[in-house]
Amino acid sequence: MAILLTGGCGFIGSHQAVVLLDAGHEVVLVDDLSNSRASVVARISAITGSEPALHVHDVRDVDRLSNLMASIDCEAIIHFAGMKHVAESVERPIDYLDANIGGLTSVLQAADQVGVRRLIFSSSGSVYGPSIRFPIPEHAPKAPTNPYSLSKSLCEDLLESVCACDTSWSVVALRYFNPAGAHPSGLIGEDPTQLASNVLPVIMEAAARRRASVPIFGTDLATPDGTAVRDFVHVMDVAEAHRRALDLLESPGFEVLNIGRGVGVSVRELIAATARVIGQPLPTIDCEPRPGDVPALYAATDRAERRLGRWDYRGLDDICRDAWRFRTNARPGAVIPSPVVAPDEAGS
Ligand SMILES: NC(=O)c1ccc[n+]([C@@H]2O[C@H](COP(=O)([O-])OP(=O)(O)OC[C@H]3O[C@@H](n4cnc5c(N)ncnc54)[C@H](O)[C@@H]3O)[C@@H](O)[C@H]2O)c1
Question: Which ranges of the chain does DSSP label H, i.e. alpha helix?
Fold first, then answer.
C-alpha cells in the first residue's frame, strides 16, 4: 500500500517524500510540475536510496487520479497540490478558487471512487486573519483576508462537512504557519519555477546576489520592530508532523492542528539571522505592505504537541543554514560575483 502525495515535487511534498521513505513507507507522487521540477525525484532518491514513482498530471483530472489511486493500492493521501501566494491570489482570485477548491474536490471525487477515506490536507495559518491574541489557538475564529486563505478556509469547511456526512472518512487539516529551510543534505529545498515570493527564498536570492536587496513589505506595522511577524518552522519538522498525523487517520472524523514553532520572528530578525549564518550583510529596501498580508501570525502549539507528541524542533539558525546550504550546494552557479538587479526590484 502506498501513500499518495499530490504536489509531491514541491517544497513541502519533496521533504515529505524523504521523511516517509526514510520511515519505510511506499510513496507515489503526482504533480503537474507547474511550480516544481521532475529532477527532484532523483534528489529524493539520492537522499533516501529509494526512487518514488512520479505521475505528471493535474489533480483535477479525476479519472487519471482515481485510476492511479486504484493501481497503487492507495492507503492515504497527503494533498499538497495547490497555489500558495497571497499577493498573487488577490490578482487572480478565480484561479485560486479553481486550483485549491477545485483541486480538493477532484481529489475527494477520485478517492471516493476507489474507496480511499484517509486524507491529510495542507491548510494554512493564514485562515485566522488579523488577530490581537497570540499565540493563536485552533479554536480562534477564522477570518481569511484574501482569496488564498479563503480557499484554504473553505476547503477545511468542505472536509469537515464530508466527515460529518460520511463517518468513514478520516481527515486531518494541518495549518502550517511559515515552512522554511531545507533538507540538511542541501539536495532539496524551496526551488519554485515561478517567481519566489515567500520571504526566505527572496532573502536567499539577495544573499546569492541574484537581487540587489531584500524588499521588506511593511515597516510601520503594529509589531515590535514594525515589520511582519511570522512563525517560521523548519520544513523537516513540518514533514515529521505529517508522518505522525498519519496515525491520527486511524480514527474517523475531522481534526485541525496548527503546525508552527509557536515563536514569532520578525522579517528584520529573519534577515539578521540569515546575515549572521552566511557571514555577510544583506541590504534591504522598505516597501509598502502587500494586500492581504496581516501584521503578525504565530501559532499556539499545545494541541499539536498533545496529538502528535513532542520532538525537538529545529531553530531559526538551522532554518537559515539549511536554506543557504541548498541555495549554494544544490544550485551551483546560483552565487554570482556581482549583483544582478531583479526587474521588480523597485518593490512590487
Ligand atoms: N510553503 C508555505 O509557506 C505554505 C504555508 C501554508 C500552507 N501551504 C500549503 O502547502 C501546500 C504545499 O506548499 P509548498 O510550499 O510545497 O508549495 P509548492 O508550490 O512548492 O508545491 C505545490 C506543488 O503542487 C504542484 N501543483 C500545483 N497545482 C497542481 C495541480 N492542479 N495538479 C497537480 N500538481 C499541482 C506544483 O507543481 C508544486 O510542485 C500548498 O497547498 C500550500 O498552499 C504552504
Answer: 11-22, 40-48, 62-71, 86-91, 93-96, 103-114, 147-165, 199-207, 235-248, 267-278, 302-308, 316-325
Our mutation pick for probing the ligand 1 site, out of 80, 233, 267, counting the most ligand atoms within 8 A of Cβ, is 80
d(CA 299, CA 228): 15
Judge whether 337 lies within some domain: no
pTM, 2 dp: 0.94
Domain co-membership, 240 together with 272: no
In 3D space, the residue among 264, 167, 179 whose CA is nearest the CA of residue 221 turns out to be 264
What is the distance in A from the centroid of ligand 1 to the CA of 177? 14
**The domain containing residue 111 runs over which residues?**
2-180+233-259
pLDDT per residue as tens digits for the range 105-164: 999 999 999 999 999 999 999 999 888 788 999 999 999 999 999 999 999 999 999 999
Q: Is 9 in the pocket of ligand 1 (CB under 6 A)?
A: yes
Catalytic residues: 148
Quick one: 17 and 53 in the same domain? yes
Residues paired with 178 in a beta bridge = 232
Contacting residues for 38 by C-beta, under 8 A, at least 6 apart: 9, 54, 56
Q: Would the CB of 52 count as within 6 Å of ligand 1?
A: no
